[in-house]
Amino acid sequence: MNNSAIRNGLGYATLALMLTALFMVFDYVPPEAEQGIAQLIFYFHVPLAWVAFASFGLVAIAGVFYLWLGDQLWDDLGYAAAETGMVFCTLMIVAGSIWAKPIWGTWWTWDSRLTTTFILWLMYGGYLMLRASADDTPQVARFAAVLGIVAVLDVPIVIASVRLWRTIHPAVLVTKQGGHGLEDPRMVATLLVCLAAFTALWAWLLMLRFTQLRTRSKMGALAMRIAFATAAASDGK
Amino acid sequence: MENLGYLFAAYTIIFAVIFLYVLFIWRRQAALDAELRSLEARMTALTSASPETVAPERSDI
Amino acid sequence: MSGFAAVLRKDLRLELRSGESTLALLALSMLVLVVLVFALDAARVRSVDAAAGALWVAMVFAGMLGANRALLAERANGAIRGLLLSPLDPATLYAAKLAAALIFMAIAEVGAVILMVLFFNLEFDASIARLAPILALGAIGFSALATLLSAITGRTRGGDMLLPILVVPIFVPALIAGVKASAAALAGMPLSSMGDWLKIMIAFDVLFVTAGYLLFEHVVGED
Fold this sequence. Notes:
In chain A, 81% of the residues lie in helices and 0% in strands. Chain A is built from six helices and no strands. Chain A has helices spanning 3-28, 42-69, 72-104, 112-132, 138-168, 185-236. Chain B has one domain. Chain B contains one helix and no strands. Chain C has 223 residues and is mainly alpha-helical. Chain C contains nine helices and no strands. In chain C, helix 2 (20-40) runs antiparallel to helix 3. The longest helix of chain C has 30 residues, at 90-119. Chains in contact: A-B, A-C. Chains A and B meet through helix 2, helix 3 and helix 6 of A and helix 1 of B.
């Protein structure tokens, strides 16, 4: 199966799953009694978080393989994963903020999940800034790989410390952590479909950007061969 | 139905941003494809004119 | 003498001769504390939380400055090539750099603690002694992380500005734990009551010293 077949397959799967997910959120699942209709944001907010973290893990795994094998393919994968992860992380935070306003009355709160995701967002930002501020050399690819690995190793410690921080001094507002005690099986089903839909969307976007970066890398190599060949040909004359 | 505005805003932003990202990728792709075609053309020209000067492809890129 | 000791001695001797980095570190710590005194209006209220927070802010900024300069000397004259050609392996080089960074950070911390007590109306008593292990753990973690990352940022266009952007988010757990534990220590709590925070800091330190030791070879090299 070649790359465009996978890409297109993922694209159609995403479309189908997303449409199903939307139907389930707006027409099928009953809204939670206390929080009203804004609670429905939860069904996108949680999958966005899962995808953001998963993408980050992929950045690190790609980094490990790049340092180990040296194949540019892994660097391209890591960069693509960082970009798509950043998109989803940003959306997760924005959705979380929009959800927070009607439920908790404030645009932002330092509850453990939002805080941890914000730290993740900062790490993504640092990674992308590193890449933006430097040229596309194997050396920079190595730097990015090391940064990705180091950042991911930190994530469990961040989660633990932020959770401890918030337990000892709980957020001032009484937080209704929606998502636990999903009593209705329809809620669980909807959440799972949304998870699948966003995972498919993530995989599709990742594939798009990844193949694009691969093309760019190969073109770089091709351009270099042409340059050498042109020089060699003119030397020979 | 209070808070409908928030729900609408959240979902709209999510899809708008995703759409913008796809657009970003799309536009880059067009430029890349054009450049690739011109590179491939030059490569074919060089290979047919003086094949001995062309280095083989690398396997790690 | 071992490679580790040689590199460490070189760094320390260089610093001893001019003393400019140490002076800059101490000056920066003091100035950050001064800014926070006015920003938090510490003159009015005796607050261990504000003091602990201010102390760690000063340490992080001073540490960042120190880390930026750590590899500067070698990079400036291309001396890094000499280090790489020597039989010294990158991991040992990392250990030596880490040790040097630690020493400088320790000096900055001592200065910052003294100033903190003075500026925030605290006492020079047993609570300060209890601060020592907490600050030591923090310094180890920060130096381990910053030594590794400054090797990266020093060689990219982002340079000095990029280091804080990379270090701070990753350092957050140690920062949270360090500030909380420090505030508790200053409030008179025994170290046994901060077990969780200390465990987090120890885990952080172990993780990043190991990671730095293993990964340094990938980031060090010629420009």
